[in-house]
Amino acid sequence: MNALHVPAGPNADLPPIVFIHGASGNLRDQEAAFLGPLRGRAELLFVDRPGHGYSERGGPENAYPDGQAQAIARLMDAYGIRQAVIVGHSFGGAIVASFALNHPDKVIGSLFLAPATHPWPGGIDWHYRVTSTPVIGWLFSHTLVMATGLTILDTVTKRVFAPNLRRETYLTEGAPALVLRPASFRYNAEDVANLFDYVTRVSPRYPDIQTPAVIITGDDDPIVLAHIHSEGLKRDIRNSELIWLKGVGHKPDYVATDLAIAAIEKLSGQPRNLEALAKDVDARMAKENAAQ
To answer: Is 149:182 a contact under the CB 8 Å cutoff?
Structure first.
């Protein structure tokens, strides 16, 4: 399993932190957001989920969030990380929830960023269904995806950040084009196609989660329905805090990185007023969105 492991600095003030990217992503997505401000403060582990980035897919269990959580738990063991704050964005939220359910001894706390964790209405986009179909999916991903995907990558990634501006360097730093490789594209589609049935089956167990959690979500997310997923986590996880951000879309990891880091600090035992910090983000977003 491919990962970027960054040792803690001599003056580290935080426990280890594990970052889990979302659908269509790879470890560089979370690395670009968090490595700079957190370098030296903690031992950091950014993972390419099975079948994504430069990780091999592994066995069929890795087509589901609990299998990927198990793979990440083994990776933590390989690096000697006994416990960590587990951070997941979007699809990664389902893996973080599975991690808290199945590996609670390894979890100091969970940070969910614009998570996808509960059953939702409307199904999935057509290209996920086509790509996850045997034979047809192979042909589709080998003939059309790369050429078409490269032409629309700029537009699609801007939509993911909307209504906020995408960082200009994101296409280089976050390397979203890696998902357009045929095998990665198929594995990503398989993940998404399996997610609904998985969370339908597993989300009733979320009340069993005992470790603390923070959920950060935008009220203008065009990708996931925050009132279903984020509010669902707040309802289901007893020891949790939900932070709403006004005028923020699907990338609070980039738009509100300082707030996300404050949430990590709070999960690590440091006193932080996340609601007050969220108001600062709201004010900044109001100015930036008005200026667009």
So the answer is: no
Return the beta strands (E) in the chain as ranges: 3-6, 17-20, 44-47, 84-89, 107-113, 213-218, 240-245
pLDDT per residue as tens digits for the range 175-202: 998 988 888 888 998 898 899 999 999 9
Q: Say how far apart CA 116 and CA 238 lie, in whole Å.
A: 18
> Model pTM greater than 0.85?
yes
Q: What's the fold here for domain 3-121+197-291?
A: Rossmann fold (3.40.50)
Contact 37, 79 (CB under 8 A): no
Contact call for residues 43 and 16 (beta carbons, < 8 A): yes
Omega of the bond leading into 134 within 30 degrees of 0 (cis): no
Per-domain boundaries in the chain: 3-121+197-291
Three-point CA angle 248, 249, 250, nearest 5° = 135
